[in-house]
Each structure stands twice: as C-alpha cells, then as structure tokens.
UniProtKB/TrEMBL annotation:
Protein name: Alanine racemase
Source organism (scientific name): Roseivirga spongicola
Entries under SMART domains matching the protein: Ala_racemase_C (SM01005)
EC identifiers of the protein: 5.1.1.1
Domain Alanine racemase C-terminal: 683-807
Cofactor(s) this protein cannot do without: pyridoxal 5'-phosphate
Family in the record: Belongs to the alanine racemase family.
Pathway: Amino-acid biosynthesis; D-alanine biosynthesis; D-alanine from L-alanine: step 1/1
Entry-linked InterPro entries: Ala_racemase (IPR000821), Ala_racemase/Decarboxylase_C (IPR009006), Ala_racemase_C (IPR011079), Ala_racemase_N (IPR001608), Mur-like_cat_sf (IPR036565), Mur_ligase_C_dom_sf (IPR036615), Mur_ligase_cen (IPR013221), Mur_ligase_N (IPR000713)
N6-(pyridoxal phosphate)lysine: residues bearing it: K479
Entry keyword set: Isomerase, Pyridoxal phosphate
GO BP terms in the entry: D-alanine biosynthetic process
Length: 809
C-alpha cells in the first residue's frame, strides 16, 4: 500500500507528505528491530511501560522515513507522519482492507488449545497444492492478527490465520479483519477462564469469529461446543466424531487414524498417540479432505510432521559456533522475526544464514532483491541457500553466498566444516529437513535440558516495570549464571530491552559478560581485591563495604589513570556485607579525601522482604537506609542512585522504590505476593527423556539400597536425570512427581547420580518420551517446598553439564 492508500483507509492526516507514491512494504512496531529501509513504516504503539513515539527521534537519525503516529510530530524533523487516533485500530483497519482485496479463501482457527499446531500442520499439508500464507508462530492477538494479515496478496491461494482472545468483546475486531470462509474450532478448555462467566460464554465469544464463514469444522464429541454451534452457526457444519453418531467418523487405529466420511474410508499412518495430538491431526485431515487434497499427499505431509517446538532455539554449537534453530517452517514474515532474534545475540561478529526455499508462497526476483537488502540491514555476513528457488535467484544477492539444490548437497559439501566462531541461523521449510544440518552443527550433550523462554523473561521484566515510576531505573541481578539459566544469554536479552544496570556476584562473571559483548553497566557484588585490575580493564563497578577496601580500589584505579566507580552498600539489618551506621562518619571522612571518586549508587539489602510477618522490620530498614544515604550524599559532588528494593520489595513496598530497584528471582517467574503470581510467566523448564521402561514383579526392589518396593506387579521407567544434574536425592521414593504427556508420575526408589526411576503403572509412557522435571507442572516453587528449601536453590542447583537451550516463541 502507498501512503495515500494508508491515509485513506485509516482516515489519517499526513504531514511532511512528499512521496505519496511510496509503497510501504514492511511494518515495524519495535524500534530495536527497525531496518531503516526506505519502504518501512514504523508504528508508534503505546504499551504499559513503553511509548513508541519516544523512539522516533532516534529512528529518524538512523534513516527511518515513515511513521504511523497518534501525536503531532514537528514537520521539521524530516519524516512523513500518518496521524491517527489509535495506531492499533489503524493497523486493524489496514489489515481489514487488505483482506477484502484478497481473492483466495481464508481459513480461521480458534479455540482454547492447539490453534498454532493445527495452523502449522495444516499449512504443511496444503502447501502440496496451494500457495499458502500463514500467520507466523502464535500471532493471534489484537496486534498479532493484523501483523499476520499485512503480507496478504493474490499471489497466495489460501491464507490460514489463528485468532485468540482472553476476555469478552475481543473477537469482533478480529472477525472484521479475518472474515474467514472456512473455520476450525479446535477445542474448549480452562485457559483465560477467569475473564469469562463460564465456558458457555467463552465458546459463544470465540464463535463470533465465524460470523460470515461458510463452513465450520469441529469436534462433535465436545457436547457444549457442538450444541452452541448448532444454535449459533448457520453455515455448513462439518463435525467429526470418535463415535458413530455423525457423517464423519474418526477413530484411532493401530499405528494410525481412520477417517470414514460418507461412503469412503481414509486411513493415515501416524506415530501420535496422545489425545491432544490426535484431535489436532483429525482437524487437519478433515479440513484437507474437504479442500480436495488426495490421501497420498496428506500422508506424505503427515510423515514429516514431528512434535517439534515451533520456536526459535539458541544452542551452543561445535567449533565455537552458536546455532539458532528455526527449522520448522519458512516464510518471509517468520524469517524477519528470526533475523530480529539473531540481531539480539551479540556473541559473535560473524553471522551466517542457512535458508531454504519459500515453498509456501510465490516469491519473485524482486522479493529476493528486497531480501538481500534486509539481510544486509540485519548484519548477515553470509547466506547459504538451499533449494532450486534460491539457486535460480542467486544473482539477486550481493552478500557472500553459496547455493545448493538440496539439503543433501549442502551436507555433502565442505562449507559446514568452514563455519567456526559464528552465529548461525538455520531457517527452513519442513520439506528440506534442515534439522539434519542443525544436528551436525550443534554441540552433543546428554538429553537433559534446561529450556529458557526468553519471551517469558521479557514479559516478567515488563510486568515489574509496570509497577514502577517511569523515572525508576532497574538493575537486573544475574549472578550464579542468572539463577542457573545462563548469564550471557539473559544479559543479552536484558540489554536489548534497555535494562539500566546488571549485577553479578564475582568479577570473573562480569569479565565473561564483557567478552561476550555486553556493554551495560555492571556492578560486582562481592569483589576481591585481587580482581581490581580486571575490573578496571573491563569497566566493572565494585560494591564496596569497608574503608580499607575502598582505599585499595581507589589507589589501584588511580595507578591506571582511571576514576573509581563504586557502589556503597549499607548494613541496615541484613548483617552480611556493608558499612554499619557507626562507620558512616569515618566513611565520609575518607570520601572527602577522594574528590574524583564517582559514587554510582548507595544501597542496602532487605533481610525479609518476602515475608509479611517481618514487614515492620523491613520498613525500619528502609527508613534507616534513607537517613544514612542522605547523610552520605550531603558531602558528595554527584547525586548517586539510591536503591533498597529487591523483587519481593517491589511488590510489597513500591512506594519506597527510590531511584532504582534490583530485580532478580522475579525475572524467573517467582513472586512472593501470591495474588500477583498469575501475572508472571515461568521461563525455565527442566526436561529430560525416558531411557527405558521395564516390568517389575510384586515383591522386587528398585534402586540403590532397595528403597523402592513393588507391592504389586508394576511398570517403571528410567529418566535420564540424577543428583549430578541437580535433581536432589530428597525427591526420590515418591517425594516428587514429574509430568509426562500431561500425566503426573511419581518417583520410586532412590535418586541415582545420573538416573531416576518413576512409577508408570497404567500410564501411557514409552521410551523416548519427554519428561518435565519442573516448569508449569510441577513448578520450581513446588520442588522447593518438597525439598524444604527455596526456589533460588532449585534453580541454581541445575548442573553445568545440563544443556541450556534459549528460545523465543
């Protein structure tokens, strides 16, 4: 769309309008992800803690030209501004307009669970015969849906979008945008139920998506959904059932799925056995059959469907590489998101993209030329293209490139051996099976993994920021490998999200962060006098708790011609490190002799901010700290930052946030205020696999010390995790459970060094199944309670030999 069209559709005013013929090709709503290309429109959205308008001056300086705004911006600034009442509403209006120009069919998917899975699997099947546009990842919100629709054009035959709501009246605008011809209602469940009167209201709200749909596919065995569809949907109803009470009968058979539709029976092989996957797969098959896809084409795509995570994963690779794995699907919108994720990582200067053909859409040479510009703007140094589409377009790329007709040709070449100390993004369509390349490049470790959801860490950061004044700074405490998660990767995320300060325990942690490219100010909380020169060379700022220590650091920094930046810690009742009240007079005398000293901050530690019974003591600490800090600052030339609140203190004593707060365990989804816990996400999930299952006869013993006893014939499984991985021995003998295929499974017998046995009698569990040790169920807090400890210990106890995988949805 050009500027004139955008203005007309959104009823906007345009200022400094000099290029009405300029066509907008890409949208950007996060200033950190702007490409500054001449056809990009920045959308200045307002959030709970951020306002996109604040970043416009910086964007203009970097070359961005076009902006969708809600405020008047001075024309003299040099940009073109499309002013609307609401940027979000304008995006929705633009998306609705573009959808109405689309001549193909739109498939809309909603429900409580499975929306993204059904969309991805259905897209995989339908690309055998159609050019398909699908929403990237789980873009199904008020913002995600219009962003998903933006690329729509008549070069696609089909478009598949998902729509999600969390409260009443949210579906109407999504329906106006999508207006699907075909609908799929996946299922109904308890997600977001707190915002609805009951499940009936939630189903009715979701059904609004299909107001103008001609056809609706659904699980007829869900009585509530089926009844309400009969009442409120007037189009063709395609309800499938596991019982013989409808025209479509779907039944799980041995190693497969039978779908009987009218007089014809269709049989499909599948390895899926769990109910959720079978339901999702049946939706996909029924929709594909309805659209006339042949059984053999459906089967070919089912064979390629794997229960992989549809997310960007960052893994340590061989030869010093880091690998970003996004080998599930490939489209231009998803590639842009992957490149943004790649841009966040600063561990390597050299960046390589391994990319397959875009088989889901018709891509022109002009598209590839624009892709070349995008890769240059994102700092990609090398492109390795896989597939005939990319090979034919090789002349469109000016960056260093090599092209291969197939994945096999790439694997058999020598180019993968040449990759070292690089950041490698692998982005491919399922057809090309680029996961084989990922396996070749990824460091080989045992199957126990700590998965860290970077989106969840970001969500938690913004939640706590929403409780603070806009002027209050945030120091993120990432000592002990960011509470076991991984310091560098978490630090990169926080720096990308403009954190003010980082705090580590020891100088070597700070040095490692500096070597990995972290530029954010870093406070060292427990420095050694031996580390003073390392701190000076790496711009680290020591915490100081004693006069002799202060003098030593001051003299050492001065000998290097540097000004000492310090953080003074005051003991107000923690009785750990810090200046006591009686030492403040001497401290002031020493400070007066150091006029060039730079006191960055003065702070103290609350001893019991997470315990309501000690609220009075905490308030006494806060008042004592304020008095002491005021006394010290009275003799300083500069005004240092004052801070005393930690994660628990932010929610309990927000009125005392002072100049800065320290955020640690809260980033990891642990909140002392139970009322607020539901507003946080749990970033870390510890997972392993089932190594073996076995039958045990009644009377036999299990494990070391024969502590496990089979009181009857039973089936047990062995998990690939033990106390050397951080799974405490106290969790053995039924004192903890793990989750497998949404089933709670208790331990039996003692926890071994590398393995743990669990009781799977009567449950659906097999070798190779994934096990959740902690995450959403059970939670870190539950494990802490079972072990009579705190969540900090559970997180930090995860062994260094456990692979860390960082991902973004």
């Amino acid at each position: 769309m050009n500027i004139d069209q955008l203005a007309k559709v959104t009823h906007a005013e345009v200022s400094a309008h000099q290029k009405s013929e300029t066509e907008i090709l890409t949208l950007c709503y996060d200033s950190r992800q702007a490409t500054h290309l001449p056809n990009e429109l920045f959308v200045a959205l307002k959030g709970a803690t951020q306002d996109g308008h604040d970043y416009i001056p910086e964007l203009l300086r970097n070359g961005s030209k076009f902006f969708l705004v809600e405020k008047d911006i001075p024309v003299a600034s040099g940009g073109t501004f499309i002013k609307v009442k609401s940027c979000l509403l304008a995006l929705q209006q633009i998306a609705s307009y573009k959808r109405n120009q689309f001549e193909g069919r739109v498939i809309g998917i909603t429900g409580s669970n499975g929306k993204t899975i059904v969309k991805e699997w259905l897209t995989s099947v339908l690309t055998t015969s159609h050019a398909v546009l699908a929403s990237p990842k789980s873009f199904n919100s008020q913002l995600g849906v219009p962003l998903s629709v933006w690329p729509i054009s008549n070069k696609y035959d089909l478009a598949i979008f998902e729509a999600g709501i969390s409260k009443p009246n949210e579906m109407e605008p999504l329906q106006e945008i999508l207006s699907p011809d075909i609908g799929i209602f996946t299922n109904i469940g308890p997600a977001h139920e707190e915002n609805f009167i009951n499940l009936e209201q939630k189903v009715k709200e979701k059904l609004k998506l299909f107001k103008r749909a001609k056809t609706l596919i659904y699980d007829k065995d869900d009585q509530l959904v089926s009844t309400l569809i009969d009442k409120h949907f007037n189009g063709d109803k395609i309800g499938w059932s596991r019982k013989s009470n409808g025209s479509i009968f779907a039944q799980k058979a041995s190693n497969g799925l039978t779908v009987k539709w009218g007089d014809k029976t269709h049989y499909f092989n599948t390895s899926f056995e769990d109910e959720a996957s079978i339901q999702n797969l049946t939706h996909v098959i029924v929709c594909s059959l309805f659209l006339g896809i042949e059984d053999n084409s459906i089967q070919e795509r089912i064979d390629r469907i794997k229960p992989v995570n549809m997310r960007l994963e960052l893994k340590r690779g061989i030869e010093g590489n880091f690998v970003i794995d996004d080998t599930y699907n490939n489209d231009l919108a998803g590639l842009n998101k992957a490149l943004n994720f790649m841009e966040q990582q600063r561990s390597h200067e050299q960046k390589t993209l391994i990319l397959s053909d875009f088989i889901q859409s018709k891509v022109t040479l002009e598209d590839f030329a624009k892709l070349n510009d995008l890769l240059i703007s994102k700092g990609v140094d090398q492109l390795i293209g896989v597939g005939p589409q990319l090979s034919e377009a090789s002349s469109c790329f000016t960056i260093k490139s090599r092209f291969f007709e197939s994945t096999e040709a790439l694997i058999n070449s020598d180019i993968l051996d040449q990759l070292n100390n690089q950041l490698v993004l692998i982005k491919g369509s399922r057809k090309f099976a680029l996961e084989r390349v990922s396996l070749l490049l990824t460091e080989k470790v045992h199957k126990t993994r700590l998965e860290v959801n970077l989106d969840a860490v970001r969500h938690n950061l913004h939640f706590y920021k929403s409780l603070l004044k806009s002027s209050t700074k945030v120091m993120a405490v990432i000592k002990a490998m960011a509470y076991g998660s991984g310091s560098t990767e978490i630090a990169k995320l926080l720096e990308y999200n403009k954190i003010d300060y980082l705090a580590v325990a020891y100088a070597d942690e700070g040095v490692a962060l500096r070597k990995d490219g972290i530029d954010t100010p870093i406070m060292v909380m427990n420095p050694s006098e031996d580390d003073v020169y390392a701190m000076a060379r790496n711009n680290l700022e020591p915490e100081v708790h004693g006069v002799s220590q202060l003098k030593h650091y001051y003299d050492a920094f001065k000998s290097l011609g540097r000004t000492l930046p310090v953080h003074l810690v005051i003991n107000t009742g923690m009785n750990r490190l810090g200046f006591n009240e009686g030492q403040i007079k001497q401290l002031k005398e020493v400070l007066s002799l150091m006029p060039d000293l730079e006191v960055k901050s003065i702070f103290s530690h609350l001893a019991a901010s997470d315990e309501a019974e000690h609220e009075g003591f905490s308030l006494t600490q806060i008042e004592s700290f304020k008095q002491i800090a005021t006394d010290i600052t009275s003799i300083l030339a500069n005004q240092p930052l004052l801070h005393i609140l930690n994660s628990g203190g932010i929610t309990r004593f927000a009125e005392h946030q002072l100049d800065m707060v320290r955020l640690g365990i809260g980033l990891h989804g642990v909140e002392v205020n139970e009322r607020l816990q539901s507003q946080l996400m749990r970033p870390a999930q510890l997972k392993t696999i089932i190594s073996q299952t076995r039958e045990v006869k009644a009377g036999e013993s299990i494990g070391y010390g024969r502590k496990g006893k089979a009181v009857q014939d039973m089936t047990i499984a062995v998990m690939a995790i033990g106390y050397a991985d951080g799974y405490l021995r106290v969790f053995g003998n039924g004192n903890a459970y793990v989750s497998i295929n949404q089933q709670k499974v208790k331990t039996i017998g003692n926890v071994c060094m590398d393995m743990t046995m669990i009781d799977i009698t009567g449950l659906s569990v097999k070798e190779g199944d994934e096990v959740t040790v902690f995450g959403n169920s059970p939670t870190v807090s539950e494990l802490a309670r079972w072990a009579n400890t705190i969540p900090y210990e559970i997180l930090t106890n995860v062994s260094g030999r456990v692979q860390r995988v960082f991902y973004a949805e």
